[in-house]
Design goal:
30% strand; alpha/beta; four-stranded antiparallel β-sheet; single chain; 3 domains
Length: 567
């Protein structure tokens, strides 16, 4: 009742203060198809602090409540829909649809606001019709039954199951569960810690009682993620801290609980949703080309609109094609430049017209005296006159996540060379439990911060700095060096501030609050997750995750750094 009074008191003042938004953006009607929502809850939903949601979000039932918490963000082009919507101070939404809407003093509605929603939505109908939460509309697998055979994996054990009925299925710490195509009926599915559930599409996993994905565990699709469905009949569907879930989940009777720093992709439906801070969620990457997406690399033929150029899931401007480039071809020209050589000034330069393939927009060959220069890309070029060679920097950048570098030690060692500076150390190897190891920097998660009396933020910053150092070095060491500022303006300055400068945040003994306030983790994480491709002249090779696995929870952090306190 208190929430309802608060909302009603605030409604009158909102339209005038937000009227200017309608001039910049015109929203269509709210979607009424369940699949148009990344999160669809029956009663309540919350966008937690410091979280970014890259898909639509709604509460289906009349009287339902959707809360965008302080410092929560709904990405451009998304919408929130509920009978009661609260956009708190310091939060940001895009399009807002609600019968009763409250916007805090510094809350932002960056798109348009529709208030109230015209009947019959919420008066008296639910948003989505037919109502997916109506018992008459539940999938044919409901009510879910399960078997009596339990399967409990040992630590680091890989377990494979065939389709069928089971009791409690538990994945051991650091272990893996492999499920092939087909239908599985389970009483409980639990992945304890640092575990992977790998599912090959198409598959349906019916869980009678509880679905729990533990801390630092992953639910990984093989094939089209949109054809992997998890149905939970019970009251618990939990994704732990630092976990990753990619697929479809339906828990009509349950509370969907998402731990902090988790990544969620796909389509999730539940009775209500509670989340901790700093989650990332997006529809892009769900295995199908959705309305509003220009492309989706996870969908069959999903990059048809721009083959090889689609921005991958999780990156800025995900599921979009790069803006078209304009190529202008000039006639060949001859120019004369002056070079001082034994008091004789003669030199000629002939420039051929440029051509523009997809990856390197132009190729120009210049001959000047005894110097030969080859320039690739829309580049920044520095020329030294006389018998010198021109140095060209390409407008491109090679970026990969910490997970990639940590599980591909061969290419990582090549990029490390004799050592790369990061967080006060020169890191030069990829071994577990070994000083100045890049693998330890990127895989020392879980219990390692506590064992070393430092904070998870400190360890996460070290992880992101190491990955950024490898990305920048790989780009700079390429046969034709690139420039990561073209992909992420200001990244070199931010890397210096956060990771390598004399007063870098990473090696300053900073508190968890100071690290959070610096913005370093978020900025470097976005850069490392760009997943931009650039020719660095190296083969990535096969994944070899053994050293990373051994580095997790081994109590070892690279010594010699000025680590911050645990609190």
């Amino acid at each position: 009742m208190r929430e309802g009074k608060l909302l009603m008191r605030s409604v009158v003042a909102i339209p005038a203060s937000l009227a200017f938004f309608a001039l910049a953006h015109s929203a269509s009607a709210q979607p009424r198809n369940a699949d148009d929502y990344l999160f669809l809850m029956r009663d309540r939903a919350k966008v937690s602090a410091e979280s970014v949601i890259g898909g639509n979000m709604a509460v289906n039932a009349p009287g339902g409540f959707l809360n965008v918490s302080r410092r929560g963000t709904m990405a451009d082009g998304t919408c929130v829909v509920a009978d009661n919507v609260q956009v708190n101070s310091g939060s940001r939404a895009f399009d807002v649809f609600g019968c009763h809407v409250f916007v805090g003093v510094s809350g932002v509605v960056a798109g348009t606001m529709t208030q109230p929603i015209p009947p019959p939505i919420y008066a008296p109908e639910p948003l989505v019709v037919p109502d997916p939460f109506d018992p008459a509309n539940l999938p044919p697998d409901f009510p879910i039954d399960c078997g009596n055979t339990d399967r409990s994996g040992l630590p680091r054990e890989t377990v494979s199951l065939s389709p069928g009925s089971y009791g409690t299925v538990q994945v051991g710490r650091g272990g893996k569960l492999l499920l092939g195509p087909g239908t599985y009926n389970l009483c409980i599915l639990r992945a304890i810690h640092d575990a992977d559930v790998v599912v090959t599409a198409p598959a349906t996993i019916n869980v009678r009682d509880q679905f729990r994905l533990g801390t630092a565990s992953n639910f990984i699709p093989v094939g089209v993620a949109n054809t992997i469905q998890v149905n939970v009949m019970g009251s618990v569907a939990r994704l732990g801290h630092n976990s990753m879930f990619h697929g479809r989940l339906f828990a009509p009777n349950g509370t969907l609980r998402i731990g902090g720093n988790s990544v969620v992709m796909g389509h999730l439906v539940a009775r209500q949703m509670i989340s901790d801070k700093n989650i990332r969620a997006f529809v892009c990457g769900n295995g199908q080309l959705d309305a509003g997406e220009q492309c989706d690399t996870s969908a069959p033929n999903g990059d048809a609109a721009c083959p090889g150029m689609c921005v991958p899931p999780g990156s800025p401007n995900e599921c979009t094609c790069p803006p078209p480039t304009t190529t202008t071809t000039m006639p060949a020209s001859t120019s004369t430049t002056s070079t001082i050589e034994s008091s004789t000034t003669t030199s000629s330069s002939t420039t051929t017209p440029s051509t523009s393939p997809v990856t390197n927009p132009s190729t120009t060959t210049t001959t000047q005296g005894a110097a030969t220069t080859t320039t690739q890309g829309a580049a920044t070029t520095t020329t030294t006159q006389g018998a010198a060679t021109t140095t060209t920097t390409l407008a491109g950048c090679f970026t990969r996540t910490p997970g990639f570098w940590a599980t591909h030690p061969a290419i990582t060692q090549v990029v490390l060379g004799s050592g790369l500076p990061s967080c006060g150390l020169v890191v030069n190897n990829t071994k577990a439990s070994t000083p100045v190891s890049s693998t330890e920097d990127m895989c020392s998660v879980g219990t390692d911060p506590g064992a070393n009396h430092t904070s998870p933020q400190q360890v996460q910053l070290i992880r992101q700095c190491m990955s950024a150092a490898l990305n920048l070095a790989a780009t700079a060491q390429a046969p034709h060096p690139g420039d990561c500022s073209s992909a992420s303006p200001g990244i070199t300055q931010m890397f210096d501030t956060c990771c390598t400068g004399p007063t870098s945040v990473c090696d300053s003994g900073a508190s968890p609050g100071a690290i959070d306030a610096s913005g370093c983790i978020g900025t470097l994480d976005r850069f490392n997750n760009l997943e931009t491709t650039f020719d660095i002249g190296l083969n990535q090779g096969a994944a070899a995750p053994g050293a990373c696995r051994d580095s997790k929870n081994n109590g070892f952090l690279n010594p010699g750094r000025n680590l911050g306190p645990a609190r």
